[in-house]
Amino acid sequence: MVRGRRLHYNLGMAxxxxxxxxxxxxxxxxxxxxxxxHTNGLVGLGVALGRQGKLNxxxxxxxxxxxxxxDNGWAHRNLGACLMxxxxxxxxxx
Length: 94
Hints:
mainly alpha
């Protein structure tokens, strides 16, 4: 299971960086199905969803990631950035 999760996570991250966001989201969701507690998978999914303009879904993924790992700086950073993009949530983003 770990190997499958790693494969889908790494492929999803690479596809997201290449702009193939729909396919990236599919692979990242598969990775999270295989390993629901994979915090970095949630962060990657949130980034990809943000790139799709699905800010509410991205915020949800980042919040879940922060809930799983309160010390994950990338989860906090991306949650704050997404909240700022969503507008009207500057205080929460800070």
